[in-house]
Amino acid sequence: MVRVCVCVAELQCRQASVVQLQEELRVAKVTGGAASKLSKIRVVRKSIARVLTVINQTQKENLRKFYKGKKYKPLDLRPKKTRALRRRLNKHEESLRTKKQQRKDLLYSIRKFAVKA
């Protein structure tokens, strides 16, 4: 997909013009306009959706940049995963050991023996 950098104001302007065109086409539909205008309605609807998609994507991208590295993030910016995966301990929490367990690991580490042939 081609990425074209367009400012949000320009996109909103384009959206307004396309919506205006859609209204004109709807009026033409009711008043019994030409078939060429009626077939254009679908194309206009798709172009509105395209513009809105780009606006929403840029908005979400900007939010992701803003919240990157912050302690709390909005729910829709967090990874979806599954319910169980979200509740699981993270790597750091999983690796933590109590003082007692650290001491046990130190004192009773795995002994390695080799039989001399």
From TrEMBL:
GO MF term set: mRNA binding; structural constituent of ribosome
> Which PROSITE patterns does the UniProt entry name for this protein?
RIBOSOMAL_L29
Q: What Gene Ontology biological process does one annotation of this record name?
A: translation
- Cellular compartment(s): Cytoplasm
- Mind naming one GO cellular-component term on file for this protein? cytosolic large ribosomal subunit
> What is the superkingdom listed in this entry's lineage?
Eukaryota
The record's annotation in InterPro entries points to: Ribosomal_uL29, Ribosomal_uL29_CS, Ribosomal_uL29_euk, Ribosomal_uL29_sf
Q: Which UniProt keywords apply?
A: Cytoplasm, Ribonucleoprotein, Ribosomal protein
The protein's assembly and partners: Component of the large ribosomal subunit.
The UniProt entry's sequence similarity note says: Belongs to the universal ribosomal protein uL29 family.
Its biological purpose is as follows: Component of the large ribosomal subunit. The ribosome is a large ribonucleoprotein complex responsible for the synthesis of proteins in the cell.
Its protein name is Large ribosomal subunit protein uL29
